[in-house]
Amino acid sequence: MRCRRPAIRAVDAAQPFDMEAQASDLLDRRGRLKIAIIGFGNFGQFLAQTFARQGHTLLAHSRTDHSAAAASLGASFFSDPNDLCEQHPDVVLLSTSILSTATVLRALPIQRLRRNTLFAEVLSVKEFPKNLLLKHLPPDFDILCTHPMFGPESGKDGWAGLPLVYEKVRIGDYGDRAERCKRFLDIFEREGCRMVEMSCAEHDASAAETQFLTHTVGRLLSLLDLKSTQIDTKGYEALLKLVQNTGSDSFELYNGLFMYNKNSTELLERLDMAFNSLKKDLFGKLHDVLRKQLFEDSAGN
Fold first, then answer.
1. What is the full per-residue pLDDT of the chain (301 aa) written as tens digits?
2. Domain of life of the organism in this record (predicted)?
3. What is d(CA 215, CA 255) in angstroms, rounded to the nearest whole number?
């Protein structure tokens, strides 16, 4: 009988650890979300890689057949949005182009979703999708506007230190709705993103300079067909890098930054005025030099 007691004590001692492991696993599972990505192009797939690595369940829908890409990430691809919505995702994430967002949202059978589904979006402009979602979604649906200020190129080595801008437009304060929003934002925080909470209006005012201006200068330089030389300076190398980075984005994105951010029009006008002012200063100095040379030559003769 003596030989059995240690075994009994060992089992008893192991039970608390088993319960702790089960509780930890339950907490981990509760932290996972079922995320439906609408618009499974390059950026949607880029986000999905991290979502999948963190253990979230992924659903995907796109006009183009990206079923192979979805399968490689462990996501379920649905060509019919009705079938996707019937899976009752916790979060519907819009990762469409700016220009197609309204059409995609109107075609989404939201009546097949749970009434308090969280809608999030990752567009490069913010006031436009905010107003669109408020207009088309029933009041029971939660709305979170976000903008990861990075992409497949700048975020390829990790998201640490990169900014994630967000506004909690409409998040219910009852049930687990606030917690669900927090869990979605935690995806980015866990990756080390710099979390920046600001209004959509503030974002667009700043983004006109940080994004639209950058894209405009990059596209303008690309029209010059600049080439690398044997005597490139660091500044010139930075310009070539800018052309490369902005050139990898579609004109549709650039056009969206202009059309759907009212601040971009004013910035383009300011840029045009600044360029004309700079040309005026340069040609003014040139005319002064030419006049001086003409009069000096005349006096010398």
1. 444 544 444 444 445 545 444 544 544 556 799 999 999 999 999 999 999 999 999 999 999 999 999 999 999 999 999 999 999 999 999 999 999 999 999 999 999 999 999 999 999 999 999 999 999 999 999 999 999 999 998 899 999 999 999 999 999 987 799 999 999 999 999 999 999 999 999 999 998 888 888 989 999 999 999 999 999 999 999 999 999 888 878 888 888 888 888 888 888 999 999 999 999 999 888 887 877 777 776 666 5
2. Eukaryota
3. 10
Selected from 3.30.70.100, 3.30.43.10, 3.40.50.720, 3.30.720.10, the CATH number assigned to the domain covering 31-198 reads 3.40.50.720
CA 146 to the chain's CA centroid? 7
Residue 173 backbone dihedrals phi, psi, to 5 degrees: -105, 15
Q: Are the C-beta atoms of 64 and 41 separated by less than 8 Å?
A: yes
Q: Where are the domains of the chain?
A: 31-198, 204-300
- The rounded distance, in Å, linking the Cα atoms of 9 and 5 is 6
166 in Cβ contact with 186 (< 8 Å):
no
What Å distances lie between residue 277 and 119, 136, 145, 283, CA to CA? 46, 45, 38, 10
Tell which phi-psi region holds residue 88, choosing left (phi > 0), alpha (psi between -120 and 50) or beta: left
